[in-house]
Every structure is written in structure tokens, then in C-alpha cells.
Automatic annotation (TrEMBL):
The gene is LOC115392223. This is Protein regulator of cytokinesis 1-like. InterPro entries: MAP65_Ase1_PRC1 (IPR007145). Keywords: Coiled coil. GO terms for molecular function: microtubule binding. Residues 479-518 are annotated as: Disordered. It comes from Salarias fasciatus. Residues 441-471 form a coiled coil. GO terms for biological process: mitotic spindle midzone assembly. Pfam families: MAP65_ASE1 (PF03999). Residues 501-513 have a biased composition (Low complexity). One of its GO terms (cellular component) is cytoplasm. Signal peptide: none annotated.
Amino acid sequence: MGKDKQLTDSLFLSEVHAAESVAYLNRALIRLQDIWEEIGIPEEQRVQRTNDVHKHIKGLLDLMIAEEDELKTRLVKSIESCRQELNNLCAELQLPPFEEEDGCTMLQMEKNSRTRLEVMKEQKRQRMEDLKILSVRDRQLCRIMCTTPFAIDLMTVPSLKQLESYKIYLDNLSREKDCRHNEFVSVRKEIITCMDDLERLPETSFEISVMSADEEAFCLSLDNISALKLLLGQLQERKTERELQCSSFRTKIQELWDRLQISQEDREAFSEHMVRSKKKNFEALQAEVERLELLKMQSLKSFTESVRAEIAVLWEKCFYSQEQQNAFIAYHDDNFTEELLSLHEAEVATLKKYYEDHKELFEGVTKWQNNWALFLELDRKANDPTRFNNRGGNLLKEEKQRSSLQMNLPKLEKILKVKIDEWEQENGGEFLVNGQKFLEYVQQQWDQHHAEKEKEKLERQMKKTKQTQEEMLYGTAAKTPSKRRVGGTPTPSKLRKVRPLPRGLGLRTPGRGRTPRALDRNKENISHLRNTPSVILRSPDTQDRTFTFNSIAGSYSEFAVNLFLHLFHFPSQSPTNSEQDGLFKF
């Protein structure tokens, strides 16, 4: 409705203007006729002049019409040209085709097309500018990383998606460049350190480029990074090889120093080469080994004997049996030659490797042996009657230590058994100590210990029985009381204050019945009866005799033991079966 009203108004105004123009033209012609008549211009001239006015007005209108028609033509051409350019730009910018609004005049259409065209030209210019910037950045990264440029046509207007992909690609490439550069700097630093340690100068063009002061000049391609790592690996391998060689030289030098008894002064003079592994240190170590080897050859006998001493120590550390030791026949050869020395050195190397391979087990066995020796010593002291004279508190400490060892030794044996089983399963052989299995060796030690304990117990019982028989037959000889009583022996005053004996305890005293002195003499036996299992392993030739002794002294011994336990408030009971069995458990 609005447009129709505007159109109607426009037509109305056009008609008004046309009517006014016609009226003005008529008034103008009438005025001209009046002027011509007043002037007195003849009729023919007035007609002529009226024709001229008509021609002039007609020409002027024709000129105006032509100009406006030309304007229309220009507008049409402009619109057509803009349309063509817009279509091309839409195709280049990969945008949908431009569509004109309905109901627009030529002027509006031309203006809209021209405005749209300017906007799209600016978009094209901006995209091409972005593409140029990205391409410059791409060339820089390609030069640094030796890569191929991004696949894009630099002469064609890129789409927004292409520009975004190009930008993401370059961002990723920049991050990769930073990573490679950091890796290059780190690896280069290690390479410089290795070359400095090896005292080596760059030889190839690649090594020269790596060692160059300009880090940015190095091409960060994947091949170069791989070659860089390979170079570092080679240098580190050479460095490690040299350090191992130097370490081997130092070990050899130390052994030769000890065997040749080189003075401490000469050793200290060479000490600077016993730490670092540079080229000069390597050469000095190598020269020292050659010098010492020459000295070794000049003193084969003393050197071989020194190696034999080392072999003997290793045999002991490895628990070699005599049979295993005798297997090395060269040990007893007195024809000292270079070949004999080589055999001894090879044996040392074999023993050292054997010890290192089984070090954990050997240390465990050594620990068990040390604990076992300490246990035997403490057990011997526990059965020594003179230990009661000690007033320094060592008796209690030794007893606690002995009990701890007696409890921990079987635990250590179980741990070693597990380790030995694992070792034998992995190595498919038997782990021997002194030529026999470890557990058999342990069992043998325990059996020997128990046998000695039983032997001592049997001897004490025989001695006690014999003494008891003599007392029963001949009585107890009178003795002058000593001024100092044995620790733990009750005084006569204390004996009078003890509580009554329990019922059923028979006090059958033979002879003159001097019970306290009999207790003094039997104190060792009583202590032994409380600390030793009551199990006696009797041999066939002693079984009957032991039975006879017990039958003779049974009542008196029982009386003495019970009396002593009662006086000192000990429970009057024999060791339980579990206590007896505990001594035989591992």
C-alpha cells in the first residue's frame, strides 16, 4: 500500500508539473506575441520566430531526453557490470550468488550492487593479505624445518575454511619447531660435553654444523634430529667404553699395586688418573698397566703366591670344600711360569664371579655361622658353674642373647632355605656349602651340638650318681665353711625361715644328713636339670649302666632337686614335651 501511494503521488506530481509546463509555455508564447506585436514585427517573422521557439524548446527537451536516456543506459550497464563482478567474486570467495531485492529502482539497484561489490572486494583483498602473511610464515618454518610448504594455491582467493586450516597447520608446525629446537639444544649440550670429555674435535660437516655457535642455522628436520640422537648415542657409547676401560685399568692397577706391594707414595703420585677418564687419563692408566704387567712378569713367583693367597680367601668366602679346592691342581704347582700365573688369575676371576652371583646367599650363610658360633659360646657359658660369681649383670644379658639366638636361628634357616630353593630352581643345580647342601650342613651342626649336650649331661649324671653313692656309703666329709658363700646359696638363718615343705615330700637323709652342703655341691647339676631337656639318647653299651645309677640315686636326687626348687620358689616340675622338642627344631 505504501509503495502504491508513493507511485500515485509521483504520477500526480508529474501531471501537475506537465500541466504547469504547458500553461507556462502558452503564457510565454502569448507574451512573445505581444512583444513582437508592440515592436511591430511582421507576421511572417513572428511565425518564423514562433517556429524557432518551438524548435528550441523541442531541441532542449530532446537533449534532456537524450541525456536522461544516456543516464539510464549507464545505470543499466553499471548494474550489469556489478552483477557480473559480484557473481565472479561470489565464486572466488565461495559465497552464495548475489540476489537483488524486489521492487527496487535502477538507482537503488545500482547503488546496492556497487556497495555489495565494494564489500566483497574488501573481503577478497583481506583474504589475499592473510594468505600472503601465512605463506611468508610457512616459508620461514619450511626453511628451518626443511619441510614442504602447505598445499594451497597462492593465486586463488582462499576460502575461510582454507585459511583456518592453513593457520592451524602453521600453529602445529610452530609448536613442533619449538619442540625440535628444545630437543636440539638439549642434545647439542650433551654432545658438546661428550666431545669435551673425549677431547674430540668435530670431523664431518654435520658435526661442524651441530657445534656451530649459531643455533638458528641448524635445520630441524626429522632426519637431522635422528642423526643428532645417533651422534649423541655414538659419543656416549665411546665415552662409556672409555670409562669401562679406565675402570678396568684402575681395578687391574689396584690389584697389581697390592700384589707387587707398590709404595703408598708412588700410588699417591698417580692418584690424579684414578678419578677422571679423559684421554690423557686413559693413556696414563694404560701405560701404568703395561708397566705393572712388566714388573709382574719379572716376579712371577711372588706374584703367583700373592694370587694364591687371594684364592684361599675366596675359597673361604665361597665355602669351598677340600674336594673343590683340590680340583684346582695348579694351586700346588711350584713351576712358576706365565701360564701358571694366567691359570691362577683365571681362577680368581671365576671365584669372584661365583661369589658375586651368590653373594646374597653367602652373606646369609656367613651370618648364620656367626650367630651359630655366638650361640655355642653363650650356651657354653650358660653351663659354666662359675658364672654365678658374676656381679656385673652380664649373666642376664647373656641369657637373653642366647634365648634370642636360639629363637632366631631357625627363622634365618627358613629364610635361607627359601632363597636356596629359588636359586636351585633358577640355576638347575644344587647350592653347596663346604661341599654339601646347606640344610644338611645346618642339620649336621645341630645334631653335633645335641650330641655334645647329651654327652655332657650323661657325664654329669654319672659323676653325680657316683658322688651320691659315695656319700651314702661313707657319709659326707666335714668342711670348714668359707667366709664368702657362692651366689644364690641360702644362709642357715634363711633356712630356718622358709615355709614348711609341701606334703608328700620325703626327707630321707642318709648319713649325717647335711643337706645344705650337699646342695652346694649339686648346684651345677640342679641348674643343668632345669635348663637341659630330660631326653637322654643312650647308646647300647651305656643304657644298662645309666639305669643302674638312676635306680641307686633316684630317691636322693629327687629329694635334693625338690628341696632346692622349694627353697627358691621355683615350680617343681620337669620340662614339658614341647620344651624338650623345641631344642631340636630348626
